[in-house]
Amino acid sequence: MAVSGFEGFEKRLELRFFNDSITNNNPMGLRLIDFESLDQVLNEVQCTVVSAVANHSFDAYVLSESSLFVYPTKIIIKTCGTTQLLKSIRPLIHLARNVNLTLRACRYSRGSFIFPNSQPFPYTSFEDEVVIVEESLPKSFRYRKASVMTPSNSNPSRAWHVFTASADVEPDETLVVVEVCMTELDRVNARSFFRRKGDEGNSDSAGKEMTRLSGIDMINANAFICDFAFDPCGYSMNGVDGDRYSTIHVTPEDGFSYASFECGLSLYDGGHGDIAEVLARAIDVFRPGCASIATTYNGEDYDHEVTKRVERVLAKKLGLKCRSRLMDEFPGSGTVVYQSFTPRRK
């Protein structure tokens, strides 16, 4: 906890592994890693598991500081506050070796912190973070790139930081990953994420009430939601829908309010409108004064029409105007489009 307030902006790490050993004899892959080993890694990162759910495709953990997802050949971990996320890279690679999986690609991303001076080393400098990541990766990774995507009409506080490294350039991921960061949450909407009198000590019922009152349960009605309410305020959830994940984290306090929404979607199973409509429903829950959307299109899947449709739908349904749009390509790791939005009145 910073002196000024809690740091909502997450650090996000995604590790993908070769699936050569995912056979009929070992279809679980990384999911065979025992919980005690994962718990030890999280202890190094400075967070713990507070709730969990699993289905036939992956395991989803709500953490004291955000979320962890474990697929057979992919791990996604994002943590907020002053956590030491990058300390997880080496032990996770080691644990993967124990189940005969070899690292294929790594992606580290984050927004700009609200309280940058409260972060410990190396998170005080993106350059230092990149050095730590690179030192943790195999020397054989040929394709590496670091980028700070900063809108020209903004200041560095709106930047998106991305580092990727890959063993090859062949796409191995079909989902489009959408990461939304929202600040200046609507005060009325933010009240949904404060505990009510009488529900102290019951995070289960309080979390379900926050999910229902806020409208989070309507973002994807097909998803099973594993939610958690913090005391006295704050909220996290993981959504499970087949092989698709979604996650939301909320810091509702006025002055440093923040919410994030992330999900994996496909361009090919319901039309190009899916992403725009899902984003409109998610952002409408919070009505932020500022929202940024980082969309990662893997392989050759980048679609400019999808990007434009997101802008049209958010403008029409929520009155949000796109103030900037940046695009950058990452060898072996796809294309990232970074959009910033504020209400038209601003």
Number of helices: 7
Oligomer state equals single chain
Largest sheet: 8 strands, antiparallel
What number of structural domains do the residues give?
1
Report, as a whole number of angstroms, the end-to-end distance.
31 Å
Radius of gyration: 19 Å
Which structural class matches the secondary elements?
A: alpha+beta
Which CATH class?
Alpha Beta
Contiguous uncertain segments of 5+ residues = none
Strand segment count: 16
Please provide the ordered H/E string of secondary-structure elements: EHEEEEHEHEEEHHEEEEHEHEE
Organism: Brassica oleracea var. oleracea
Protein name: S-adenosylmethionine decarboxylase proenzyme
Enzyme class: lyase
GO biological process, one term: spermine biosynthetic process
Task: Give the SSE layout.
Blueprint: E1 11-17, H1 35-45, E2 49-54, E3 59-63, E4 66-70, E5 74-79, H2 89-98, E6 103-110, H3 126-136, E7 143-149, E8 160-166, E9 176-183, H4 187-190, H5 203-214, E10 224-229, E11 235-241, E12 244-251, E13 258-265, H6 273-284, E14 290-297, H7 304-318, E15 320-330, E16 334-343
Antiparallel strand pairs: 1-5, 1-6, 2-3, 3-4, 4-5, 6-8, 7-8, 9-13, 9-14, 10-11, 11-12, 12-13, 14-16, 15-16
Helix pairs in contact: 6-7
Q: What distinguishing features does this structure have?
A:
alpha+beta; S-adenosylmethionine decarboxylase; 8-stranded antiparallel β-sheet; globular
